[in-house]
Structures are given as structure tokens and as C-alpha cells.
Amino acid sequence: MRRHRHVPLVAVFCLFLSGFSTTHAQQQQAAQDSADIIFLIDGSDNTGSAHFAVIRDFLVDLLERLSIGAQQIRVGVVQYSAAPRTMFSLDSYSTKAQVLDAVKALGFAGGELANIGLALDFVVENHFTQAGGSRAEEGVPQVLVLISAGPSSDEIRDGVVALKQAGVFSFSLGAQAASRAELQYIATDDNLVFTVPEFRSFGDLQEQLLPFIVGVAQRHIVLQPPTIVTQVIEVNKRDIVFLVDGTSALGLANFNAIREFIAKVIQRLEIGRDLIQVAVAQYADTVRPEFYFNSYPSKREVITAVRGMKPLDGAALHTGAALDFVRSSLFTDSAGYRADEGVPRLLVLLTGGKSLDEVSKPAQELKRSNIMSFAVGSKAADRAELEEIAFDSSLVFVPAEFRAAPLQGILPGLLAPLRTLSGTTEVHVNKRDIIFLLDGSANVGKTNFPYVRDFVMNLVNSLDVGNDNIRVGLVQFSDTPVTEFSLNTYQAKSDLLAHLRQLQLQGGSGLNTGSALSYVHANHFSEAGGSRIREHVPQLLLLLTAGRSEDSYLQAANALARAGVLTFCVGASQANRAELEQIAFNPSLVYLMDDFSSLPALPQQLIQPLTTYVSGGVEEVPLAQPESKRDILFLFDGSANLLRQFPVVRDFLYRIVEELDVRPDGTRVAVAQYSDDVRVESRFDEHQSKPEILNLVKRMKIKTGKALNLGYALDYAQRHIFVKSAGSRIEDGVLQLLVLLVAGKSSDRVEEPASNLKQSRVVPFIFQARNADPAELEQIALSPAFILAAESLPKIGDLQPQFVNLLKSVHNGAPGPVSDEKDVVFLIDGSDGVSSGFPLLKEFVQRVVESLDVGPDRVRVAVVQYSDRTRPEFYLNSYMDQQGVVSAVRRMDLLGGPTPNTGAALDFVLRNILVGSAGSRMAEGVPQLLLVLTADRSADDVRGPSGAVKRGGAVPIGIGIGNADIAEMQTISYVPDFAVAIPTFRQLGTVQQVVSERVARLSREELSRMQPVFPAPTSPGVGSKKDVVFLIDGSQSAAPEFQYIRTLVERLVDSLDVGFDATRVAVIQFSEDPKVEFLLNAHSSKDEVQAAVRRLRPKGGRQANVGSALEYVSRNIFKRPLGSRIEEGVPQFLVLVSSGRSGDEVDDPAAELKQFGVAPFTVARNADREELVKIALSPEYVFSVSTFRELPGLEQKLLAPIASLTSEQIQRILASARYPPPGESVAAAASLRGSLML
User: Fold this and answer.
1) Which intervals hold domain VWFA (predicted)?
2) Which of 387-401, 528-542, 997-1011 has the least mean pLDDT?
3) pLDDT value of residue 1232
4) Distance CA 1057, CA 1063 (A)
5) Measured between alpha carbons, how far is 321 from 328 in angstroms, rounded to an integer?
């Protein structure tokens, strides 16, 4: 399953009058408001008893600083491992002393599994409720603080949606092996995710978390309004009957536990008319159907019906008769069973005793009818009888008792076959309606259109086209859409292909995607257009575009999603990924191609999702807190500067207003134009609904005027618009925003009006266009971050997503940064080679810190040590005074480690230190200075990470000591002149003054006049490009620890520079045979790859055939049409993760793979080392573990060669290696490779 939010779900950070850096006393006072906080703690073996004590101490320290009480902040604690367990509830204790005593008494639960998904469900159902002590109905904020030490053992999606639906603020704290991606998925916002690499640093998170907890309690942090959550589900049709023991002998407690267990099973299934259907019946001496397959179409309705069941309370248990009833009366057309489609039939029997009638014959009849039966029995049931009923003995489950925890224990084992078993039946008919919506504009052009035509023909050739199977329609669009043929035009594939062969480019200069989407919705996804939407046939739209839309598209895309239409997007040429992700039903359905010539190869990736995916539903998730009120004035340049471009500006304004929650009690909007004077189009109290204000904007005409009196316009806005008489709520403390568009230099002075405006607590945002003066605009804005420059007026629409996010996350009246504000990070080499000089290194850092004006609103400092691993010593928000920082520096010990991996450390700082949750103020425009001190050449590549750090907004200064490479220091530094080199540690004192002065001098103004120097690529056309294929074991042997394999891949991807022109990634699973998860050209961003990795589930299979898997990737994956750049000389890497010895021979496939120049690395659990050496690039790239839990320790060992090995180095290693000669096919490959090298 996948989810996609069409509207951003973010937290809005409002007024903190004294900032996050309040004193201890202020923070205690701030928490006098109320909140209900549940701490959900990882009690699994991931944490361990020693680290659990660290968590306990962390909670005690944090709670000491909050105002806890029955009317203030209430606290509950839940511990989770295989099952969640309440330590105490929100209403268990009414005083701080009682809560602290309870926390100090917490004991470690332990357990191999860490079922976070189950735990999230549990806290929503049992703690964020009135019965659990919650005050949600009184409007008290509901807060969850998750503390995790490892990835979840179960699916978390349903639990996350439940949290959103309950309006809970979710914070995620992680340590050790916790999955950051998983934590971000759970948290309400990325700013509410806090991680440390190890538990020894866990206490540092207190200072980061506390201001946010206070902010929620004080209502300074609120949630945004409803969002759309969409799901894409692969078709896996099956009809399942749950047959439940309803005898009085079972007992009410057991019945309730079974009822809740069934609800949990259904919660984890894909319920729907075209997916899984469920029926439930109770039995004793008679059978009572609770509901049929066709009774309820949605999961929510099914679960409600299950939870509403009452016991039948029959006297006798006649299981045999009940089995006959299920076969003859429930698996029928009238009950909703889909016999005509051959959908698999499954029966889950839950019984608490031995049957009083004969079960052998009814059980045999079920098997003859190919009804696959599962048997869940209590200890009082007859095991032999259960095995006779079950389709296979592996489908018999006997929990210790019918209680929540034992039943939860059998859930994973029951769910897997329930989802996958199909017996001998096949799903015969795969009906769907597919519309192709093709860009026919000049963006494609006549030269490239044949590629588009071939792409469509290749896809259609692969589809089962027919009036009763797959129907196809096609529309071209540019300025306007034109129907080529409808869904009911052709009934034969041959006729459809004949039309496609004659297809010609429509032509046209415009590209109105929004109107085209609306057109196909109205004219093709309708009965008149041949659609079978009313028959619940899946509806799919495939949009292929080569440029950005020139009209508004979001509303049309959302309308299609709400109608259940699955929109796939294929982009080429100038197509914009962000735009396509908003249009697509789900971001996973977006495909970007290098060029048009690659299009004909795309159908092999598309055919499976096009023929198996369906809508999993669209949920409007209502969130408890309303959007904070705000008054926004759009004050736009209406002078001659915009004379010909005004329609573009007007359309841009229209799109922004479309995104706002316009209503009298929410966001109020005013609009005005200015030139020599001001013309008010609408005051705050005139057009207070979205349709009204949009209609006004649509009809706006340019004001005109030669002069541009910006100063006068600012003064007018303050005196006449941001006032109560014009509908402004400024006197009520409502956030006042000014959105200013400037396309020229002002004819009057702006300093005084701008100053007055800011003093009245109006927050200005500025769009800079054409000839606007940047220096003039900086006088108006609070921060350069609030100035967005348009490349040209026709491209101003590109700024819309960035602006809307900025607008929604603005601090209420937060002051802009002052010139002496800086965030300074010291990244210091802590490898073994530094040991003798480490005291001098610490002294240097201390001296530089003593020269800085350290304070929460001035200079913040962080220190990170690194070697072959990275360790933060403290963060930018850990210490807010100079003495605290100096004391922390003095306490530092050498990290130790063989070599300094400076590249990996730079990447770590960018991702984990220069972020808001770690105290960075980058988003506020505060300079981010990074001082890198190292005593040796880096063991990994620094070029890519140093470029990423600079592009990410940091200003690095390289300081090299002893064996450090001065060229490397210049590469790292913002500009080469910033680099410093000294022969020994003793010379650090001689450069300290120079470095301190440089840090002091690098203000925002100074940096605005400088441009960073980026390293040139190492060789033309290659640079940091790499192709990395993960070949992972998905067999039954690997399945129990598959989550650790998935986490390894996710973490490695997180450390790579993923992109179409950088590192490309593919994942292949294997057992008896290989399965492509995604190809090298399937995803072009790190976020997409990580999302795809998080969706990985073990494919299953009894045997792991490494040899055939190697042969498959060699011949099918490392190929140009599938995204490999092997012919361009890009290094090719294979990371093999296996659970044991191969079930087939590996010699020849391994040799063939290496003949093609691929560098294999092998990771295996309890494997044959000799076999691994045959496969690997060389013996040093063979890694063995006793359990996949040890995989985190291999991350840096795998990353280092991927980051540093070039194609030439790989070839040299292969040439020097000796491995068995392969067969003839390999010899042919070698010959080919030799000719290529010549």
C-alpha cells in the first residue's frame, strides 16, 4: 500500500514571543496550559534493558520540567514489543510526584518483535479516548511521543492514518537502528522527528523536544485542516468467510477477544468490491450470518459490523453442519461471491471446542470445492479435528488462550497465507478502462511524436483489449483537448492499433493540463464515454506530458482522485516532477524518462501496475485543530512594468488563493494594486468566501501607471488595510501577512514605511520580478528567506509550491535574523591518527568559541566528531551560552577509528545537524558555517558531499593539518581561498585568530555578495555517477529478518547522492527465481527510491538460487534500455544480500557478471565463504554476519567502496583477480567487452 497527501499535512508554528530558547522557569510557566501526552516506548530487544534505563531517566528529566496535573498536562506511558502494554493511563495519576514515581518504577518488557503499527492502533483505541482519560472532546491537544530503537516488525500505515484521524500530534524520537524514514512517516511533521545515533546521546534530545511540547500545550503549534490520503493497491481478489463459535460455552470474554481479533485481521486487508470481500457468520447448533460479501463495500463499514456482533449463545457446537452451510449458502452469487471471476475462496474457522457432529465429510467437500480453510482453535478444541478441516496442516493455529496477546501472536502467521493463497483457481477477467492523455503540443514536436506513438502501441499490444476486458480511449491536448477515440469506439485490438499507426501530432503552443484533466473526467470517465465506472470497473488515466501546465490543475487532479480514477504520469523533456506528483493518484505512479527515445522501453515497467493496481480508496482525514486565523493582503505591482504580463500574474494569484482556507473565521484575503497610488480591489471584510475572492481575481484588470511608489503603497497598506475598519483582525492578535509583488525599482523611499509596517507586526513576503532592486526589498523583508525571485514573469508559477509551504509555516511575527546571528558547526577528525594532537584540537575549538557571541538569538554552536563513523558531541540547540559550549568541548574524548571518512561526515552534518530539529536556523536565513578540521586525506569521496553541503546552504571552511590534502580542503571550502593548511597541530594557535575573524566577518550581507565554488567532475560525463543494484534474498529463510535487510538498503540509499544524473538505484528480490522491484531508471529522486524500498516485502519461496539471480541481473538489469549507464563508463555495483548457501551453482554466473565490469559485494548470513569469494569483486568485499540484526555495522564498509571506486579501479581489480573460467556465453561476453575496451 502507498499513501499520498494531495494537500500538505504540516504543523503550523505560530507565535513564540520569547522564542524556543526560553529559560527553565519560562518553559515551566509556558506549560501551564493543557495537553494529554502518551509516551510510547520501545520495550523490545532493540532497546535492551541497559538502554531502557536511559529512556526512563530521559522521561524523568523531561517531566520534571513540565507542569503536570489533572487540569494541566496529563501523562500516560505504553511500552511495546510484540504487543503493547499500558504502564499507566492519562488519568491514573493526578500529581507530578505520582507520575515521576510511576516512571521511575518502569520495568523493561523485552521481546524479539517491535510491532509499532499494532501499538499505534492500541493507543488510539485505548488511550486517546474519554475512557482512557483523554480530554480531546474539551479541545485539549492530544500528543504522542514515540521512542523507537529499531524498525517496526509490522505494517504501520493503518496506525498512522488512525493517529491523523484522531487529530494527534505525533513526535518521533529515534536511536540506534531506528528507521528515520519510518519516524518521519509517523510524525505529524518532519520538524517533529528527533534522532541520535546512539543512546549515550539520548539526553540531548530533551532540549530539542521540550519547546515543541510547550508549544502544543500553549496552542502555539496547531494542525492544518483536512487532507486527502490516497492508496494504491495491487489487485489481490479473494472472498473470505469468518465462521465464529457462538456457543455459550465459549464465554463472553473469549467471544469479545475473537471479535476484536477478526477486526484486526480485516484492518490489515485491502477491502473493496474489486479487492478482498468479507462475510461473517456465527454458529452453534444453527448458523446465523452476520453479514454477506455484498453487505458492506468499505473496510470501515465491515469493521463496524464486526465490532457490533453479539454472541449467539447457542447450546451445542455443530461445526460440520456449519461448514456445509458456508459452502452452500455463503459462497454463492446471491451472497456476493464472485464465481464468474474465479476469485479464490477462503474460510477462517474460529472455534473453542470439539464438534458434536461429524466434520470429515463437510471438510472433504470444502477441499473438493477448492475452498481453502484455516482453523483457529482454543486448547479445548480437538487438534486432529482442526487439521482435518484445514486446507493444510500449516493453516492450523492454536493460541494459548482466546485473549488479545496470544491471538495477536498468531496474526502474522495467519495474514501471510490469507493474503497470498490462491489454490488452483485463477482470476479470469481483468476488466479496466484506460484513457491515454497525450501531450500533443510543440513540447513534444513532430520529431519525438513517433516515440510517443510507439510507446502507446507497445502498451496496447500487451493489454487484453476487448469490450468485456480492457477498454482503451485516447485524447491529445495542447491549448485544448481533442478526442482521438473513446473507450467504446473499438472492440478489437487490431482496429485500435490500426488507428494508432495513423496517429499524428495535434500541434499547438500552449499546454493546459488542468482543462485536459477536467475534459477526460467529464467526457470519458462517464457512461456516455464508454466507461464502466458504475459497474465498479477500475478507471485508469495515463498522462504523458513534456512540459509544465499553463493552467491550474490541482482541483481537476483531486476531482479525478476522489472519483477513484488512478492517474499515472509519464514525464519527458521539460516535464516538472513536483507537478506530476500532484496530478498523479500517488507519487509512486510518476515515471520520468531521460529522453523520448527511452519511451518505448517503459511499457515493461508499466504493464504490471496498469493491469493490477486499483484505487484503495480516498480518505478525507479530518484533523481536530483548525487552521490558525490569518489576514493576507496581496499587494501587486499594477504599473506599466506588468502591462503585457498581467494575465500571468493574475493566474498565479488565483492559484495561490485556491490553496487557502478562505472563510470569515479562517483566512481572510484582501487584494490591492499599486503604481503611483493604490487601488483596493477587495478589503478583508468584502469577499470572505473562496468562490467570491476567486471570481474577483479572475475579473481583475491591470491598474496601470508610470511611477512605482512602493513606499507610499506600504504606508497606505498599514494605515488603511491592516486596520479593524477594513476587516483586519490585527487588534485580536491574528497573524497579518503582506504578499508583495515588485517588478521595478521604487520611485520613492521605502525604509521608513517598511520599518513602520514591521513594527506593527505585519510579516511581508516578496516576489521579486524583472527590474526590482534586491537591496530595496531586503529593507522590507524580515529575512532573505521571505524573498522569492522569479526567473521571469511567465515562470512565476514555478514559485507557487515553495511559497504556499512558506506561507503555511510562517512564525507569527517572528523577528527576522539580525546580522550577528550564525550557526557554527565544528566537524572534527576523531580518527586514531589525531590522538596525540586531540588536546590541541579541542583547545583550538574552545578558543574560537570564546571569540563568538554565543546565545540563543545570536551564535549557536555544534560539534561533531568523525572517523569511519560519525558522532555528534552536541547540537546547535544543546547549549545556549558560551560557558555551556566550552564545558562540553572540554569534556570531549577522542572517538577513535582507523580512517577519516570526511565525505560521509559532511553528508551526515547536512542531513542531521543543519536541520530545524537540531537547532539550525537555516530556514530563517541565518548563515550556516561549517569548520572542517582533519589531519589526513579522506578515505572516501568528498567531491559530491561537499557540493551537496554548499548547495544545501552551508558555508564550509576546510582546515587541514599534517597529512591532510590541501586540494581536498579547497574542494570542501565554500571558496578555495577559505582553505587553511598547517604542518602540525602546534600551529593551530597561529591560525586561530584568522579563523575567528573570518567566522565573525561572514555575515548574511557578506555571503550575499559571494558565490560558492563547486568541484568540477572528475571525468567528463561521469563525475559522481554510479549505478547500484541491490540483489536481496526474499526467500522463507530470509523472511523473519527481512526488515533488517530492508533497513540496510534504506540507510545505504540515504547516504548516496541519488539522482538521474548521480547515483541510480535498482532493487531485485530472489528466491527460486528473481523478481524486479524497480529498475535503475524507475525513480529519479532519493525520496522516491526510499519510498519504494519501504514498501518491500519478502517475495517468499523455499530456496535461494543465487546463481540464477546473478545470471538474471547480468543479462537483464545492467543494460542501457533499463537505465544502466555501463556503456558510458559509469561504475556498476551489485550488493548481494543472501541468507545462506545458494541452491544452485554460482561459478559461471559470477564470472559472467564480472566479465561485464560489474563490482559485486556480498553480504550473507551463515553462508559458505568460499562461495561468496567466487562472487565478490575481491575477498575484502565479502561480509558475513551471524544474524541480519548485525547489518547496521556493515553500512560504512559498503558505502566506502561504492563512494570511492572508479570504473578504472574496478577493471584493475578484476584483471588481477583469478576466478574459474566461465562457459562459452561468458567467453563471448568477454570478447565483446574486450572489443568495447579497444
Assistant:
1) 36-209, 239-414, 433-610, 631-807, 823-999, 1027-1202
2) 997-1011
3) 31
4) 6
5) 11
Extended strands (E) in 882-1040? 928-934, 954-961, 980-982, 1026-1033
CB atoms within 10 A of CB 827: 27
More confident residue, 11 or 1012: 1012
pLDDT tens-digit profile of 1102-1113? 889 999 999 999
Question: 3-state DSSP call for residue 332?
Answer: coil
Give the C-alpha separation, 426 to 10, whole Å: 44
Q: What is the pLDDT of residues 1057-1080, one digit of tens each?
A: 888 888 999 999 999 989 989 999
Provide the grid cell at 499: 488507428
Which alpha helices (H) appear in 718-799, and where do they start and end?
Answer: 751-759, 774-780
Q: Which residues, in sequence order, are CB contacts of 1094 under 8 Å at separation 6+?
A: 181, 182, 185, 1046, 1050
The conformation of residue 136, written as its DSSP 8-state character, comes to G
**Rounded-to-integer distance, Cα 351 and Cα 382, Å:** 10
Dist CA 117 CA 154 (whole Å): 6
AA identity, residue 30 = A
Distance CA 179, CA 173 (A): 10
Q: How confident is the model at residue 822 (pLDDT cuts 50, 70, 90)?
A: very high
Residue 8 burial class via C-beta count within 10 angstroms: exposed 0-12, middle 13-18, buried 19 and up: middle
Number of other residues whose CB lies within 10 A of the CB of residue 26: 13
Give the span between the Cα atoms of 1123 and 1144, in whole angstroms: 28
Q: Quote the CA–CA distance of 89 and 96 in Å, as a whole number.
A: 14
pTM, 2 dp: 0.39
Nearest to 866 by CA among 841, 884, 848: 841
Alpha-carbon distance 531 to 526, whole Å? 5
- Whether 913 and 872 have beta carbons less than 8 Å apart is answered as yes
- pLDDT band with cut points at 50, 70 and 90 for residue 1029: very high
Tens of pLDDT, residue by residue over 539-584, are 999 999 999 898 888 888 888 988 889 999 999 888 888 788 889 8
Cβ distance 157 to 1 under 8 Å?
yes
Q: List 863's β-bridge partners, or say none.
A: 826, 874
Length of the chain as a residue count: 1238
The pLDDT of residue 233 is 56
Cell of 72: 494541566
Bridge partners (DSSP) of residue 545 are 571
pLDDT at 114: 87
> Can you give the pLDDT at residue 234?
58
Name 146's bridge partners: 40, 172
Strand 73-80 with 35-42, pairing: parallel
Three-class SS state of 1230: helix
d(CA 92, CA 406): 26
